[in-house]
Amino acid sequence: PNVVLASNYSNCNLTFSGEFNNLGVLSISQRNVTIDGKNSLFINTVFDVAGSDVVLSNLSFVLNDSFYDNEFAAILVRADNVALNNINIDCIALEDTTAYGIYSSGTSRHPVDNLTIFNSTINFTGQNYNADVYNYALRMDYSRNAIVYNNTINTKLVLRGINFNTGRVASDSDYSLAVSAIYCDDLLFIGNDVTCDAIGRSFGFPTLDCFFMWGSNNAFILNNSFEMTDFFTYHGVDNYLYGLDIYSLANLTVANNDISINTTGGRLSAGAAYPIQLTGPLSNVTIVYNDLCSVSNGPNIGIYSSNSGGNTALYIMYNRINITGLAGEDSWALVAGIEGQDSNDSIMNNLIEVHSTGDVDENTNIYGISYSQSSPGDHSFD
After folding, report:
1. Are strands 83-92 and 55-63 parallel, antiparallel or unpaired?
2. Helix and strand tally (H, E) in the chain?
């Protein structure tokens, strides 16, 4: 069932108190509504925010059902100037069912502007093993000028194969990830703690992302902690883990973040556990003062960037990078602090430590900084 806030509650402050069970979707289509959920708990009860200038504060959710009528979200945002403060979401998705903690659902014709999410916690477990469904703790589509700061996002997710039929033009290519930002220009993602733990895997190229970003220009990713683990995948079995997975944008700053990946998975010439992966076209991307650490038993790279999708220009400076993987003589058996398959890079003043779990000789592909695998176009490096 849907419960719709009456029209006479525009410009009102409302307080919820107590426990609310199985009420379905609570829809707020009125403008300038503030809801304070002091001492309240919403069990299998979710919010649809369709009115602008709405504030939700101090709400707690416990969810273990599916919410088709709310785009499968605990909180669905479809309007401008929405603020979410001190929201606590505990969500266990039904198996092979789409689920989101918070979903800001803008479109190219009707973007969502000025979303703010702060001081909130999302504990999210996704269980999509077989179906083509999506499990994200936070999904933002066409959400301009969003500010996401001082939040904790804890996820337990299944490694899933990639839907290559989309051409990776949207997050529809990835079925499992913690945070997604698609066409979110002027995004500020600051001071958040994000964890992403693998609890299972499917077939194909089992992939898990902590933060997926596409087409989001003029963005800042600052002072965050991203931690990924996959102890579900056995040594000698390939898996594909990415801390920041970034595509097709201009003017991005990634600074002062701690990104760590630790996995038992990986095998010679197959797998990935990259703290940062980038694919062009990219311009004016600055990656500075980050701590990047990753341990796997397969190919591994601290910062991997490729111009296979279009020209790339990166500034990579003052990062601390510590990478362990299995290097070999095959071109895919690559372990490096930075692999820049780019059009124009400046890479300076980084502190890089690289290890192989296997024997190393003069033909082993292990490097501090490399352009080791071929990619299209001209290449220039400083």
Report:
1. parallel
2. 0, 34
Residues 322-347 as b or e (16 or more Cβ within 10 Å = b): bbbbbbbeeeebbbbbbbbbbbbbeb
What lies within 8 Å, CB to CB, of 83 at 6+ separation is: 54, 55, 56, 115, 116, 117, 118
Query: Cα-flanking dihedrals φ and ψ of residue 355, to 5°?
Result: -130, 150
For 257-274, b where at least 16 C-beta lie within 10 A, e where not — what string? bbbbbbbbbbbbbbbbbb
Taking only the tens place, the pLDDT of each residue in 319-355 is 999 999 999 999 999 999 999 999 999 999 999 999 9
* Assigned token pair, 148: 């996401």
pLDDT at 2: 80
State how far the Cα of 185 lies from the Cα of 83, in Å rounded to an integer: 18
Name the pTM for this structure: 0.97
Residue 105, beta-bridge partner list:
141
Q: Write out pLDDT tens, residues 242-260.
A: 999 999 999 999 999 999 9
Reading the block at residue 254, the tokens are: 């990634």
Q: Do 354 and 337 contact (CB within 8 A), yes or no?
A: yes
The predicted structure's pLDDT at residue 130: 86
Distance (Å, rounded) from C-alpha 175 to C-alpha 160? 6
* Bridge-based pairing state of the strands 366-370 and 55-63: unpaired
Q: Residues of 10-27 as b/e, b for ≥16 C-beta within 10 angstroms? A: eeeeeebeeebeeebbbb
Residue 202, judged by CB atoms within 10 A of its CB (0-12, 13-18, 19+), counts as middle
